[in-house]
Amino acid sequence: MKKITIIVPSYNEEEALPHLYERLNNMMNKLTQYEFEVLFINDGSKDKTLELIKEMRSKDRRISYVNFSRNFGKEIAMIAGLDYAQGDAVIFIDADLQDPPEIIPELIKYWEEGYDDVYARRNSRKGETFLKKFTSKMYYKVLQSLTRVEIQKDTGDFRLLDRRCVNALKKMRETQRCSKSMFSWMGYNKKEVMYDRDPRIAGKTKWNYKKLIDLAIDGITAFTTSPLRVSTLLSIPTFLSFAIYFIYIILNVIINNYKVQGYQVILLLNLFFFGLIILLIGIIGEYLGRIFNETKNRPLYFVDEYNGEKEQNL
Ligand code: UDP
Ligand code: MG
Questions:
Q1: Among 95, 100, 125, 207, which has the highest number of CB atoms less than 10 A from its own CB?
Q2: pLDDT tens per residue across span 53-80
Q3: CA angle in degrees (0–180, nearest 5) for 10-102-119
Q4: Does the C-beta of 6 come closer than 6 Å to ligand 1?
Q5: pTM: predicted TM-score of the whole model, two decimal places
Q6: One domain for residues 64 and 76
Q7: CB of 75 shorter than 6 A to ligand 1
Q8: How many angstroms separate the alpha carbon of residue 106 from the centre of ligand 1?
Q9: Looking at ligand 1, which atom is closest to the CA of residue 73?
Q10: Integer angstrom CA distances of residue 299 from 175, 245, 272, 295, 311
Q11: Cβ(205) to ligand 1 under 6 A?
């Protein structure tokens, strides 16, 4: 019997958990051909989340949990989930039921057809402001233009991953994690499933604009080092204006016997040296980008198949 682990990062979710359990339980009871494990990662909750999880576990042995020593954030909760999951496949789901568990059978169906990474894409986002939707759309446009890795649009962390994807992700131990970029980067056979994202069932969102800005910056720096190239690019117009102005003055001197003014010399020197400094910063940036990528210490590649056999990445 194949085992499927449902990973639920939970931070102060006491109000949502009973609803979540009910819906998950319904779904799991229908899929009798699988063995399920529901793995809660209690991310340093300050409310009764842990007590609730323990109570659920005492009644239902499919439930297990990891209790963090403090709040580490959802990204870290997710990798902990991968580390502790026992299933042949894992499914990430939010505790607040924004990701409807009723989609899970469809995710599993595509997994059985041989897809490794079945991700759910939102049709709509109920209960979110226009501003949040708009900024998120613009953000992904900018992000995609900066990187060669393909970014999946309107996709969160709600997805099913085959064991070999889990093993692959476990090899990516960087501390500043951006799962979205890792899912894209790791590759494998991906399949999209559409769904309607519901509003949060109870409790409050853990996000605010400050956290979202942090996430946006993390996202860009995780996907690409191209912002470091800004400096190199800026040096070009600076040098160009220096060159044009320089030639203009020299010609004036030769043709019109023009007497060069003090301020013009200063302006020229300024343009030249500023251009030089910006260029040098750009060069440092290029090396910094390479160091940054090396320090992630990622595997160089993942193998899908070897001589017709699926590679498990052990
Ligand atoms: N979460 C977590 N640690 C945190 C913040 C959030 O484990 O520091 C969990 C949270 O319990 C929920 C999921 O991550 O299961 C998504 O959080 P939330 O619903 O607040 O985010 P939103 O859906 O508003 O983006
Ligand atoms: Mg939510």
A1: 95
A2: 999 999 999 999 999 999 999 999 999 9
A3: 70
A4: no
A5: 0.86
A6: yes
A7: no
A8: 24
A9: 8
A10: 15, 50, 43, 11, 15
A11: yes
**Residue-number span of the structural domain to which 156 is assigned:** 3-225+298-310
What tens digit of pLDDT does each residue of 229-271 get?
999 999 999 999 999 999 999 999 999 998 989 999 999 999 9
Same-domain status, 230 and 219: no
Contacts for 214 with CB less than 8 Å, ≥ 6 apart: none
Say if residue 162 is in the same domain as residue 237. no
In order of 53, 89, 168, 176, 196, the CA distances from 219 in angstroms are 31, 26, 20, 10, 24
Confidence of residue 220 (pLDDT cuts 50, 70, 90): confident
- Tell me, yes or no, whether 254 and 214 share the same domain: no
State yes or no: pLDDT of 312 exceeds 80.
yes
The candidate with the shortest Cα–Cα distance to 213, out of 277, 139, 163, is: 139
Report the CATH number at residue 102: 3.90.550.10
> 266 is written with which tokens?
């200063």
Q: Is 198 in the same domain as 75?
A: yes
Output the CA 283–ligand 2 centroid distance in Å: 42
Give yes or no: residues 7 and 84 share one domain.
yes
User: Cβ(207) to ligand 1 under 6 A?
Assistant: yes
Residue 243 three-state SS: helix
Q: Give me the number of domains the chain comprises.
A: 2
The C-alpha atoms of residue 93 and residue 89 are separated, in whole angstroms, by: 13
Reading the block at residue 25, the tokens are: 């339980």
